[in-house]
Queue: 2 jobs
Job 1
Amino acid sequence: MSRAAEDRWLIALAVLGVVTMVGAPQVLQLFTIINLTTAIGLALLGLSLGLIWGYGGILCFGQTAFFGAGAYTYAVAAQNWGDTTGAIVAAVLAAAAVAAALGYFMFWGRISDVYLGVTTLTVTLIFFNLLRRTSGPDYRIGRALLGGFNGTAAPPLRLPWDDRVILSPQAMFYVASGVLLLAFFGCVALVRSRFGRVCVAIRENETRAELLGYDSRLYKLGLFSIGGGLAGLAGVLVANGIGRVTPDLFNLSYAAQAIIWVIVGGRGTLIGPVLGAFGVFWLTSWLGTQSYFNSNMVLGLVLILFVLLLPRGVVPALVELATRRRRGALGRAERLRARRPKAGPRRALQPAE
Amino acid sequence: MDFAAAFLVQIVYGVANLALIGLGLAIIFGMMRVINLAHGEFLMIGGYTVVVATNKGVNIWIAILVLAPLVVAAIGVVVERVLIRFLYGRTVDTLLATWGLSLLLVGIVTAIFGPQTATTLSPPIGAFQIGDYGSSGYELFIIAITAALFAGIYALLRFSKLGLLARGTMQRADMAAALGVSTSRIYMLTFGLGAAVTGLAGGLLAPITGVVPTIGASYIAKAFITVISGGAAILAGTGTAAILLGAMNNVITFLAGPTFGEVALLAAAIVILRLMPNGITGRYFRRSL
């Protein structure tokens, strides 16, 4: 897609996003709005993974490690401080710090794709096992009990300037959609910036980018930390949507779902993972209402089929289809013109390889 | 003195446990550079095979030592033929496809047996005493079986014709194919072998841990850590990593409790990867099996 066409799409998307954000609470029931808030949090998690995997080529199977770290930091900080604005900032910083620490070991060790995926997955599973063991009064941070398997309460958001006012579910929906929109367009700006272009260059050919003088480790670490921070923010939103943080935020099924959103939506796009997250959220909710298939079975099949048949995902496939159609139309016009006799021989120009 | 002996048995068991969980994964990874994310589910199915067979009246030893490896090997061969075969050379896609498989298997087993713990088995060997300290005879049995497995796989790879072909395929698949080895068949067989070892491990551990459809998740973190820290050499890698990590895990668990034991395991693995990005056998014992 050309830059101009992409801009047109983005503007349309922004308008659509704002209209949905303002309109949805007027039309939909409260239950749906609360559910949507959680879905928006998950979509943000998908966006963060889409950013680092699609644009940095960093195969992170454990994006939930930062997601859960953000959620836990938010819950603990909010219980201790009473104020939630500072807790959000702390959550994002903590998640980014976890990502940076992990990224240092992985990128400076220069470990390859497979090792990277498995290491990150292991990290999130260890967090899961660790927090499950934290039941009992010994495990507390300040006033907040970690609570083991049952987790701990996530206090609802309060107004930044008046911490006696708790946000209503509708207001929470506005906050969540606003955050998702800002994060999405922030990511678009990021991947279009010089930094983002270097990251894509590293994804395409790390050696070449290094020979051109870019320290690929530093760029990857930067992108990974930003992705980690976004995942932490997603954790805050989901913690608010559910009302509790439990070790389940770290578990295999969330980690797998994040991967599925990106695979289904499309690697190398930012809108793909977001749409993928909404789609899969809708699918799993629907699967919960019937008893023939359980969601693991269906999600597993979806993942296998996409890897085998459509490994690039839905959005890139659609874009390619649209481009080919337009090219096809142009091609027909070209052929019609070519039928008329023309002066001079036509020579194909091949770029020198 | 008695305490030292009991503690030593615990450490050796910890090491054997890690080695046993990781071995099947290591065989598949070492041979084909495929990380099987459905490894935990293979272990889980091995466990379910034992539970179902003993409930049907099959002798528990036959269920553990014969049925569990056979069933999981059969599943492994089918999986290799219908799924993995199309994805050789596409490492990332293999990871994703086996992850899908993992979810699918959890889903299927949940649909058949329900999400709760299946009837638990009691270990077929009782406890015994070292002075004042009790120790489990079944854990000693697992230690012995793990040692025998390592020896058996070593002998298979080192001395048999199949082992020679497998090692050749592992080092240079194209050259082996040019010399008339059916590499596709070798891959199928090694995947089956890895699955069989995994099924045996799952069957052996079922009486200790019990089985739930989601039990795979509690194994795979340890299995991945062991195999990745070990590196590409199947036996030497898994062995050294299991000794290092298992001993450390047990000592720290003893000093500070199981929570910190697990954290130490992870921290050690990450530090190992920072220092030796290709695992222990990427730097030491490079020419070993």
Job 2
Amino acid sequence: MNAMAWIGSDHVRHDGADKVRGEPIYGADRTAAAMAYAVPVSATVGRGRITTLETAKAERVRGVLAVLTHENLDRLHPSEFSFGLGSASESFQPLRDNTVAYRGQPIAIVVAETLEAAAEAAALVTARYDVEPFAVELDDPGGERVDQAEAVPAFPVVEIGEGDRPLDQAPVVVDATYHSPAQHHNALELLSTLAEWHEGALLIHEGTQAAGRVRHALAKQFGIPMELVQVVSPTLGGGFGQRTGQTYSTTLAALAARRVDRPVMLIVPRSAVFHSVHFRAATRHRIRLGARDDGTITSLVHDAFAQTSRHDLMPFWGPQVSGSMYGIPNFRGTTTLVRLDTQTPGYMRAPMEMATMFALESALDELAERVGVDPVELRRRHDTATDPATGKPFSSRRLKQCLDRGAERFGWSDRDPAIGSMRGDDGSLIGWGVATGCYPGLASAAGAHVRLCDDGTAEVAISGHEMGQGIRTVIALAAADSLGLSPNNIRVTVGDTRVAPQPETGASWGTASALPAIREAAIRIRAHLHQIAATHGEPVANVDVSECRLAEGRLLGPDNSGPPITGLLMAAGVPSVEAPGQYFAPGRSPTEAPDSATAPMSAVMADVDNARVGPVFPDFVTCSYVAHFVEVRVGPRIRRPRVTRMLSVIDCGRVISRRTATSQALGGLVWGISTALREESTVDPRFGGFLNTNLCDYLVPVNADVPTLDVDFIDEPDPSFSAFGLKNLGEVVHVGAAAAITNAVYHATGVRVRRLPVRIEDLMTEPAR
Amino acid sequence: MRAFTYTRARSTAEAVSTFATSPDDQPHYLSGGTTLVDLMKLDVEAPGLVIDLTDVPDLDFVREEQGDLVIGALTRMNDVANHSLVSTNCPVLAESLLSAASQQLRNMARIGGNLLQRTRCGYFRSVEFSCNKRQPGSGCSAMEGVNRHHAVLGTSDRCIAVYPGDLAVALTAFDASLSVIGPDGTRSISIHDLFVPPGDTPHRETTLEPGEFITAVRVPMTPAAQSSSYQKVSDRSSYSFALASAAVGLHLDAGGTASEIRIALGSLGTVPWRAREAEQALTGTQLDEASIRRALEPEFRSARTTPQNHFRVRLAVETVLEAVATAQQRMG
């Protein structure tokens, strides 16, 4: 409706100054009068049944208010796994009975006056178990294998062209198997919930990226109307998919608060976070590439294995990713799920794409070497304008531009393809690697409520969660453009079910979903002001409203003249004008969606909460792309790999907020380093659960592990996917980063590491060359 | 964490008498708290009485006495590392301290307590698992478990937990001694006699008697201390325990022959490991890579490795070579 000025700018983070001053309130920062603390007690066997649970000692600790166990817990309606119609991160709900589904699950909750008393008492709860056999590794014979295509029809076997048949005839075949470990989100902010009951109504404060989903789940579980549950999540100390469902810790906090009739804070300890909520499933991928001698790939076969839980089937749709990445005419992709005795795995940044593209991009690197084609060139040659899986064109695909710009900026032409041929001054081996990534264009529904005030400020209450990615900033920039204000004069409320519906913010769709809702509200506000102008005989009212715009605090016509908004409001005798806006992903509008201009706010918002994720476009497919270029160095004596240079070029359509987009991209690359060289949840098959459940043993990079990172954006709009020209960003930046690093490690050392993460010992054996 | 009584001692005598007269079974001294508080939170340690030593005067110093470097036991790790006497005369000490932990931890931890830090064995640190060190006779979960970080030297059938510290490795290379005070008065112990390999009693880690604590560390500043080096290899670049480390000191005579060489290995053994055989083989010789490799071989004859940790034997050799190279550069 008007020229974009703030969108695309490098304006500062909307909440940056607040964060520097320590002002945002994270989940566990909050307190309430007479608040009690709850601490979980964890199961210490891999699977089985509790035979006796000894709580007397714990109850005697001074300050203990209650010990909740399966023997005294209020009955609730079951939780329903989010993959389906439910909202929970898994269907299993601890403490319902004496079942131990996996090591680390809570078997009791101690509530006390202080955190210290609760923790002391929790350590005094003892249990005896009947232990049952369990399995925690993909290849454990106790793991039950499930053919995903049969069990989850939404994810059938992917067949393109002649499937796997041409593989036999291919003169060159790369056949390799790649492994990615389980990973756990370890945001600094622990999972925490403050639950308060007031006259039958439940108020939850917690860092979640799906406040609306938590709200629905709690209402259902407690059997109370949704209106009686509110969930507030203004700021998260890291989401990354971990907090996209309702977790049982929230339910248990609410139960504890009801039991002791006081507000209760439940903070899940770091070690228990490893056994509480979504994590990245361990996966294995057999990739077979059939190619002609010149490197032309004629067929790709991808057989994936992914871990799920005994009680839920969390699908893995890696072959749905690999089949659409390149112009390869024949493809077959299958997935086998393996039921293991852990909590249900789920979403973690690029949940399907990270491991899939590690495998595919490693295999491509192996092929490039086999056929003697430069790895950048090999990828360029297999670019495609249409999605092989659907035959539909991509709305935009600038992968080749990412590769070309990246290669030029990185200096790729100086790369000597011979393994171990490049050396640093200190004798270290230098390797250069490349890999690409993709992520589908997604959007959810969003609802906004915008109020333009007579003091030249505006309030935006909207769907979305701020987890550090910068959604407040993009919202402020978009509102600033639509309302003709400075972003500094816009107040943004996100993550609060009391003021706007709160579907999940995840899968990179936050910006794509929020911005259209703001624009719709702003168009209504403009109409409102235009009407006031007409009532008061302002000349601008003679111009059609669609040709007017809000700018410089005025309602301007095409001739750039018009009355100040404050004057119009004063004339109308109102302090502000307000309007709702809503957005449904294309192809996902409810059939009888109420008109948000006329229907009551609550009706509009309920629809947003229930809308399905999209979009579904009949004629095209949208993906974001990235190309990563990496330099690693490996010491001549101590063969410890270090990333010394990293450049990534990203096609995410139009960049909305350069500041936060850059930051988000950098974060994806840091995590790429972590995935390639550090992160792994270890298991001890004798005991079950996860073993390295602390930040000393679960390695993430330190600053000294991260070199200067460089990111660049193609920054060309995709108007088909979004009226704003944007595509998704948050996940794609992480996809392929690990493969670029392991490909660089190979180039330096000749050691092909097919099992993440790379460890120093992997590089200490001389390669067989 | 269990409830406990906390008291602050104002003098060494008060600390010792408070300990000796405590009705509690296991009173515990506290300095920086970076190990003890951590283990109390994990329920691995549960003292009924904690005696805070940090108000005890005159134990926070770095000075030179008769050619020895003497450091008060309550001196903070960072203060030792950044002291010019240390960085100039004994770089291996400064480097071992600065390679450890984080800035924040080094600002809290005192060097007496640093020497007594407990192993990082995950089975020791989690009360869910059997551990002979934590609960004598209960069994060792690490031997058949995740043991990439566990010891390959000085192990026993009862325990393979590694001694994780860095400073003690440097002190071991340079024959440091410790002043100790306890109910029976003061005494001096060689660093070599402080740490006890697990044997049949992995719960007994040092020769300190109940009620004793370290008051000072004394390091002889031999010619090799000047050109010394600490090299540490970990999975990440900082804030991480070592996969292998080496403290090396070197003095070459005019002809380039090693008149003094000191080598200690860290994070390889159940205790800091002095490579005496290698030192003897190399003293009086011209050092080269092949001779150092050869000299180190006997040190690992007694090594007991697992499929996960056997790479650390070779890594240790490479780490020593790296440390020797740095020390040689410091010879000028």
